Amino acid sequence: DLDECAGSPCKDHQYCLNTDGSFSCKACDASCVGCTGEGSEKCKTCASGYVKEDEKCTDIDECNLPEKVCTKENQDCVNTSGSYKCVCSQGFEDKDGTCVQT
């Protein structure tokens, strides 16, 4: 078997899987920028919103950072994979970018 992966035939956001007589390109984990294999522990570097922790790229909980990320009044932070979003607190609704009581 010829190792086609030796020539790095895959794109930057993929890794190469050598198979008998062939190869396939597989997508890197969402937490990676470039990878050497499957999963968040095979990242070359972590994607934005992720940090290397115990040899894995793990999501940063922006809502638990010392500095508040959602600064408007009556607004709550919701952590998402690799990011976060600011939503109006319960009993409030977004009206032209301001959270007003419903």
From TrEMBL:
InterPro entries: EGF, EGF-like_Ca-bd_dom, EGF-type_Asp/Asn_hydroxyl_site, EGF_Ca-bd_CS, Furin_repeat, NOTCH1_EGF-like. Keywords: Calcium, Disulfide bond, EGF-like domain, Glycoprotein, Repeat, Signal. Residues 59-98 form the EGF-like domain. Gene3D superfamilies: Laminin. SMART domains: EGF, EGF_CA, FU. This is CRE2A protein. Coiled coil: none annotated. Signal peptide: none annotated. GO terms for molecular function: calcium ion binding. Belongs to the CRELD family.
